[in-house]
User: Fold these one by one.
Assistant:
Number 1:
Amino acid sequence: MPHAAPSGTPRPPPSTSPSRPIPAVSRATPVLTPTGVAGLPQADPPRIAPVTAPPRPAPSPSAAAAELRELQARLERMRKESAFQILGVPEHADSAVVKAAYFKLAKQFHPDTIAPGSNPDLARVKAEIFAAIGEANRILSDPEARARYKQTLAEGGPADVDVQALLQAEETFNKGVVLVRARRFAEAVKAFDAAITANSKEGEFYAWRGYARYFTNNDKKVAAADALRDLNQALKLNERCAQAHYFIGQVQKLTGDSAGALKHFKKCVQIDATHVDAQREIRLLSGK
């Protein structure tokens, strides 16, 4: 939750729009302010809201065992399927069809749908399925990534995804987001480093690392250069990464470049029309 900010302190506001799904973070982390860093924002930095469904009541033991067997069988099939098969869409499906298929499956298999006290194996298998669905969506929602993927399939390359590595990357990234919210930026950078090592193709990992990096150096010119290096890499991997544009806008706003900040906030809204925090920044910078 946002914290009250002292007067005159820059506030990078929280983002409520998802640019891509991540597992929900349920445990609050104490807010610790790093020492020696001037002008830190006193509000929680932007966050990514997960796509969740309400937890179900715990099923009977027999029903739970049957569900586990069904999910294990599904996971085994998915390991041999293409991204198109995982989402259940044809190769000619447009972005709207891909998005609709993804959200339907994400709501069904999100780890938050596991009832409290369920078999740990059930939670693990469902989390792996959710990670595979997320990776399939990442590939098919990015035109360049989809084109490369289709070329790989045409050449007889592997269609499977390393679910375990992707799941580990998502979990590590999620820890980094929690650390950013707690303003423990140096620790967050290390978490994002590990996430990128596990999955170097996810642009949003670089976006969050760049944003965290800005607050780890007292020399704001150096800090801004480090941050923008990662943020630009995020856009290189995914030019439609709305969160990267939002973070660039925040860094430029904090360094006094209001015109540059406004440009990227507008680009963020062009990509994600529901990004209310970018919309607010546009109103503030435009004087409207």
Number 2:
Amino acid sequence: MKLGMVGLGRMGGNMAERLRRAGHEVVGYDRDPKTSDVADLAGLVGSLGDAGARAVWVMVPAGDATEQNMEEWAALLQPGDTIVDGGNSDFRDTKRRHALMAARGIRFVDAGISGGVWGLKNGYGTMVGGDRDAVAPLEPVFRSLAPEDGYIHAGPAGAGHFTKMVHNGIEYGLMQAYAEGFEILHASEYPLDLAGVAKAWQHGTVIRSWLLELAGLAFEQHGEDLADIRGWVADSGEGRWTVREAIELDVPAPVITLSLLARFASRQDESFSAKVTAALRQQFGGHAVQKA
């Protein structure tokens, strides 16, 4: 199958390569001319064949970049063409964009993609949302991207991004649990080989996982103290959206919520709330405080 790929960064570039290896013809566009096959978006669309049967996959950051791209695609594509948003977009934006494109006769598919920098080799978990008549022609592409049994048409417009959002919320909780466990091990009286523990836990234990394997690799690469890594943890939005939906749906999600808040805490050099707590303990109980 022939399609265009917009955004050839760490994810998009590897995805395009995996599709090519599977026999698909991929025309890539990126703002970096060194990685682009065409000069601009109009050139990309023109290279994809007849109007009404073209497919463009967009892998750009969620938010303003994706919004700007949608306006450009609405002007460039024709009725019957398909656009796939493979970024981590808010599913509410996805439903709005689906309606925007549908009004122009353009098919819109949302694809939540998981696999990171390892996806080229191992495949990408692929969670797709959209109308069945838009999704079906692209299933050879989705199945080529995914490992065996790693593709699902999750439902109508927004379902792919919604499923990926919750996936990432779960990921937050899993990562936080591993992080806290390894901190307890690291702080203990025992001279533990953390990389060795991670490897041992990979065999036969109930907490074995790919994330645990990656933890072992991190300790091997950076040392037991992770001395060259600052404990500052970003979030790209999906955890916040998952917590928001949990609140909207009256679903208690304390683990995911606290894992998100732990990321916020990681960005503070000094916690003002901790200062207030220390000051209050001094006021009511005469407890000692440490001077800044």
Number 3:
Amino acid sequence: MIQADKLSRLYGDKYAVRDLSFHVRRGEVMGLLGPNGAGKSTTMKMLTCFLPPSSGSVVLAGLPLHDDLEVRRRVGYLPEHAPSYIDLNVEAHLSFVGRMHGIPTATLSDRIREMSTLCGLEGRLHQRIDELSKGYRQRVGLASSMLHDPECLILDEPTTGLDPNQMVEIRQLIRRLGEKKTVLLSSHVLSEVDAVCDRMMIIDDGVLGAMGTRDELIGLTSAGLVLHVCMRGNATAVVARIREQYKDCTVDMSDSTDNGLSELVFRHADMNIPLAESVFSAVVAEAGVILDMHMQETSLEDVFHHLTGRPL
């Protein structure tokens, strides 16, 4: 549905986006992640024909990007700060947007009601937009982007300004839309991307760092198997048993505390070895007691920091 090949955008002599290649399939929700200034908004503006690329190509819904009028008909775009005519009420604003998209008058009212129900605007249709909260203005923007039933939705921070309950509702809506449409969304909320997206890509300084499913991205940056153990007993003997069994296993061991507890961290590159079972057996063999044992999991935050060198 979206195929970008070596997409680049220059501002003067500085690249905002450089040689960006990716594809998004029909019926897929793709997350676009990156720190501030990474090129996310510039990428979205190029895909929606607001900015021409300096070089590279994009095919969207089978159409080249230079066929901008037809591409705009196939795309729904929600900018981070959704523009609206604040002196109009919600229904009048949606009606204007619908007429600009060429929606027939005979079906426009039904379409407005359908989108207001989807976005939770039923009781706000006759309220002026300048009287709405930021969250409801965001809902108006989302309804506007979907009014003409586009094949592809490009959403820049779609849950900005929403309360936690509204965020859940919009996430569920995006998931339903993603079953039939192509959705590309940008967000600073990693939990949102994790909950909504089938795949995600991370860009930094306008360059693609990685792209894949959550598990694939974590696999790129995982440090292997990391097991944390808190035990009482002969920790030195336990460590000796594990090192004998797994030659490549490294262990960090804190000094025993006053209450006789030891903190151990076992690391091994092979994610598939039964390290937890082996440690448990070693502690039992040394007549020790385990008070806590847990695997350290790599999070999306870890992946992001690894690929960009800074937190989100």
